[in-house]
Amino acid sequence: MQRWISRVSDVRAMCIFVAIVVLLLTFTPHAMPIAANADETAASDGSMIAFISPSRDNQQVQLISPAGGEARTIWRVPADTPRQYGIGSLSWRPDGSEVAFDSGHERFRSMHARDLYAVTPDGSRFRRITNSPDPTSLAALPVGTVQVRVANPSLTGAELEVYVEGGSRSFRFLAQPRTEYDVTLNNVADLGPNVRQFVRVLSITPNTSGRLCHYEVTAFADVVANQTVTAGRVSATEDFHCPTTFSPSWRSDGTRLIFLSREASRNIDPPNNIWQIEASPPPTALGERILDMGQFGTTDKLYMVAMASSPALADEMLFVRNGALNTPVFRANARDAAAATLVDLGRCPRNACAVLGLAWLPDGSGFLFSRQEDGAALGAAPPAGGALYRYDFERRQATQLLRLPDEGIGRIALSPDGRSVVFERGPGLEETVERVATGPRLRCPCDLWLVERDGSNARLLVRDARAPAWSARAPQAAPPLTPRVWLPLISR
Asked: Which neighbouring-strand residues pair with 92?
C-alpha cells in the first residue's frame, strides 16, 4: 500500500516534521554489563561484536570486544516478552553508528507482528524502522482522537485488540457475537498532513486458519491535533496472516536495509519475500518488495538474506531457501533479484543439510557458511554435526574450515579483515513448528566462540549468547540525550 506525506508549507507541517526528528532520537535504558571470557590478543581495529544474551528468555542486545572482557547491554526486551516474540538477528550499520535487529516485543502496537529496529552502540537512541515511529517515543508530537467501528459478525465471541498507527497504546475488549462497536482511541499522534494512519484489529482468540490480523483498505485516519476524526470500519471476518519482518542486513553504504517479510495474506501458506527500506524512512513506511517468491510456485520459504559488505558489490546479496532436506543458497542483485542464480555448494555428505549462517568475505571473493549435516551418510562421509565452510566464487568450490561432531554451528560473523569468525555453538538444531516458516536455528542455550578463518585457535567468547554481528569499524558514539517517558490514557 503506497503511503506518502504531501508537501506543505504551513506551520503545522513544519512543527510535526521537527517533532518527528526529535522523537526518533529517543532514550534507551542504561546498560547492565555481564562477564565474558577474555582472549589475550586485543582487537586493534576497535571493532565490536554485537550479540543477544541470554540466548533464550529476557533477551538483551549486548556488545563485547573481540578480545573478550566485559560485555555491556545497549537494549533489552520488556520483561514480559515471550521468547518467540523476542529479538531475532542483528546487523551492524557499516559506519558503526547503529545495530539493526528484528523483534516482536511491540506486536500489540504495530501493524506487524515483528518489526525492524535500530539502537546506537551507546544505547542512547532507539528507533523503529518499519512502521515508524516507535510508540514509546511519541511525546513530542501533537495528538488527536480517532473513532473506528469494529464489527464481529461471527457466531462466537472474540477477544479483539484495536490499534491505530500513531497510538501509544492499543485497546483490548471482548466482542460479543454479531455485534458492532464504536471504539474511541484518544491521544493518537498526528504523524503529518495527509498521512494515512491505518487501523489493525488483532484476534487474541485463536482460530483454525491462523489468520489473526484484520484490516480494511478504507480503515484509516488523517489524524489532526486536538480534533476527532473517523477511521471507517474493520470487520473481524477480513482476516489475514499477520505480517512479519526479520533477517535484516544493511547495504554496504548504509542507505538501506534489506530484509525478509511475510506479508499480510489470506493464503494458507504465504511466502517470505525480500524487501528493502530506507535507513530513515518517513512515518508508517513499510518499505518495498524487491523479490516476490510467490511467482515461483514453491512452498519453500526464504529464511536468511545477507548483503555484500564490499562497496564494489553494493547490490549483491545471498539468500537461503528452506527445503525439506537441503537449504539451497542463491546469489542475486537487488536490482533484479528474480534473476537469482543457485550457488552450487557441492553434494551434501548426509541426507539432511541445513545452512545456518552466512557471511560475505570483505573482498567479495566468496563467503563463509555454516551447515548442520545430519542423518544417514551418503557414501564416505565425515562425522555428523556442524561444519564451517568457505566458498570461492572463482573456483566454485566449498572448502571445510571447521567441524564439530555431534554439535552444531549456527549463525556466524566475520571480522573486518576477514581473518576471524565468531559463531554460535550449541547441541544441534532446534525442532519447532516455526522452523517451517522462519528456517532452521541452532538449539539454545548456546554459546559464542571465536576461531581463525583457517579453523585454528577456537576459543570461547561468551556463554549463553547467540546471533553475532561484527562491526566493520569502531562503533560511533552518539551524543547524550534527555530521557523522555509518556504514557497517555487510551479509552473506549
From this structure: 99
Q: Examine the fold and report which residue of 240, 267, 286 is the final residue of a domain before the chain moves on.
A: 240
Any idea which residue has 555431534 for its cell? 406
Task: Find the domain containing 64 and state its range.
Answer: 34-134+245-470
pLDDT 10s digits, 423-440:
999 999 988 777 778 889
| 133-188 pLDDT, tens digit each | 999 889 889 999 999 999 999 999 999 999 999 998 999 999 999 999 999 999 99
For every residue of 120-155, which 3-state class applies, written as one string? CCCCCCEEECCCCCCHHHCCCCCEEEEEEEEEECCC
Asked if residue 265 and residue 296 are part of one domain, the reply reads yes
Task: Say yes or no: 256 and 220 in one domain.
Answer: no
- In the numeric block, the cell 520459504 is attached to 301
Short-list 128, 137, 222, 138, CA closest to 187: 138
Q: What pLDDT is attached to residue 32?
A: 32
**Is the same domain home to 249 and 236?**
no
List C-alpha distances in Å: 240 to 106, 264, 371: 19, 6, 34
Within this chain, do residues 175 and 94 fall inside the same structural domain, yes or no?
A: no
Q: How far apart are CA 364 and CA 369, in angstroms?
A: 14
Q: Record the cell numbers describing residue 23, joined without a space.
A: 522523537
User: How many Cβ atoms sit within 10 Å of the Cβ of residue 418?
Assistant: 18
Listed in sequence order, the residues at least 6 apart from 11 whose beta carbon sits closer than 8 Å to its beta carbon are none
> What pTM did the predictor assign?
0.88
Same domain, 451 and 302: yes
